[in-house]
């Protein structure tokens, strides 16, 4: 699948083809998932249903709410010593991020926009 040649990563052609198929399937799944979630949300709000449960999955309605957070940028500007005292350092595991190229991201954006009625 992956090889290192002259300190550069080379990807097997079959992997690229498989990845394209996977990316397409992911886009189709995300489109269907959004449609299903929107329909569940609409019906659960309309009928006051808080939870749906069957042998395959559970759907829980989460009502809108507000969230309070601290504006760390403003805190650092106004009270840098307090901000420093309250800052903690956490270890973060290594990972690999795979970002879809423009054409796939654009395709997903178009699908979502069509769902919202923005693109004819």
Written overview of the protein:
Helix 1 runs parallel beside helix 4. The strands form 2 sheets. This protein has a two-stranded antiparallel sheet. Strands 3-4 form a two-stranded antiparallel sheet. It is mainly alpha-helical and 120 residues long. The model has no long low-confidence stretch (mean pLDDT 85). It has helices at 13-47, 72-78, 80-85, 102-116, and strands spanning 2-5, 8-11, 51-53, 58-60. A hairpin with a 4-residue loop joins strand 3 and strand 4 (58-60).
Topology:
Blueprint (H helix, E strand, L loop, with lengths): L1 E4 L2 E4 L1 H35 L3 E3 L4 E3 L11 H7 L1 H6 L16 H15 L4
Whole-number average pLDDT?
85
* General form: flat
What is the succession of H and E elements? EEHEEHHH
- Alpha carbon gap, first and last residue: 40 Å
Question: Taking Cα atoms only, what radius of gyration do you get, to the nearest Å?
Answer: 22 Å
Q: Numbering strands along the chain, what is their spatial order in the largest sheet?
A: 1-2
Give a count of the beta strands, DSSP E runs of length 2 or more.
4
């Amino acid at each position: 699948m992956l090889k290192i040649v002259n300190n550069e990563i080379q990807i097997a052609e079959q992997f690229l083809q498989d990845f394209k198929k996977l990316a397409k399937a992911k886009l189709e799944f995300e489109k269907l998932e959004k449609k299903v979630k929107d329909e569940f949300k609409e019906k659960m709000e309309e009928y006051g249903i808080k939870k749906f449960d069957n042998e395959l999955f559970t759907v829980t309605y989460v009502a809108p709410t507000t969230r309070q957070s601290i504006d760390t940028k403003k805190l650092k500007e106004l009270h840098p010593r307090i901000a420093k005292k309250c800052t903690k350092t956490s270890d973060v595991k290594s990972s690999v991020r795979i970002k879809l190229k423009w054409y796939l991201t654009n395709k997903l954006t178009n699908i979502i926009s069509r769902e919202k009625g923005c693109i004819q």
